[in-house]
Amino acid sequence: MSDAEWARHGVRINELQPGVIRAPRRQGNPEEVARIAQGIPAGRRGTGAEVAKAAAFLLSD
Question: Can you tell me the distance from the alpha carbon of 61 to that of 1, in angstroms, rounded to the nearest whole number?
């Protein structure tokens, strides 16, 4: 079935790609973290709580 055919059947597809997430067990090199953060639209690493909120939203009615 093509993408257009799936869409006509009302299939909803959600995807969550959290990217770079802050984790307490590994902080890494501060200079490298700052360099990576420059390429992130928010200008910082995400948090586990933000990922959880996005997942809860996508799973909600």
Answer: 26
